[in-house]
């Protein structure tokens, strides 16, 4: 018989390969690790800030533009009454129980919200600013103020301040229109959606675009007069004065309202102002 072969299982031999890390490679790995860690912390921080902003936006009431009542200088009724003098755009007189002041900028989107003539811009900003007349719940204050002014129950002053940056020529146009007794038609045209686009997209304070603005307002005011008024810069100094006066009244951003000496900083709904209005009328 043939001899059986002895089978011997050879053990598995594992070879260990030693990877030597050079000091330079080790330093590079540490640097990369630090960079990744810092970037992760940065992303966490940005996400945290974004969450805070979103939370604030969802808790802001419909009557606020994310703004609080200012903590500026105290305002005397005498300072408000002084605005009802020659040189300011004012309606009515200082002896009324109810005095309104609006610090505005025709290029400011939230001024358009409060102005009551631009449902398109208002709704596009946020549904909370959709007008009552457009099926929403926001009642724009300027239109309600004008009703009280027209009936002689209130007086009103308009001041300019650069809340958005493109409204200087449009604000000068308001002064020109005020001179000719055409303030409200020009105001309402400028504060429309077409006005917002013309001011911010076409004119943008470019004096070479004065003909564009004049043509846009040709149905509201004499074109030759307006062209001459704007080209001369007749009311440019009034805008600088308005800015300074606004600061003394506690102005923080457009739109900014005073009802006698009570301040409303932002595009507040008329309902939020009505208690102050009623109190003044009943005094």
Overview of the structural elements:
- By secondary structure, the protein is α+β, with helices and mostly antiparallel strands.
- The chain has a single domain (77-282), classed as Glutaredoxin.
- 49% of the residues lie in helices and 9% in strands.
- It has 12 helices and 5 strands.
- The protein has helices at residues 23-59, 77-81, 109-115, 119-125, 141-150, 168-179, 183-190, 193-203, 210-216, 223-232, 236-248, 270-282, and strands at 89-91, 98-104, 154-160, 256-259, 262-265.
- Strands 1-3-2-4-5 form a 5-stranded mixed β-sheet, with helices on both faces.
- A hairpin with a 2-residue loop joins strand 4 (256-259) and strand 5 (262-265).
Derived from helix and strand composition plus strand pairing, the structural class reads: alpha+beta
SSE topology string: HHEEHHHEHHHHHHEEH
CATH superfamily: Glutaredoxin
What is the level-2 CATH architecture name?
A: 3-Layer(aba) Sandwich
- List the total number of helices: 12
Strand count, sense and closure of the main sheet?
5 strands, mixed
Helix content: 40-55%
Number of self-contained structural domains: 1
**Rg:** 32 Å
Q: Could you give the distance between the termini?
A: 132 Å
Average predicted confidence as pLDDT: 84
Identify the overall geometry.
Answer: globular
Number of strands: 5
Q: Any idea of the CATH topology?
A: Glutaredoxin
Strand content: 5-15%
**What is the CATH top level name?**
Alpha Beta
Low-confidence stretches: 1-19, 44-71
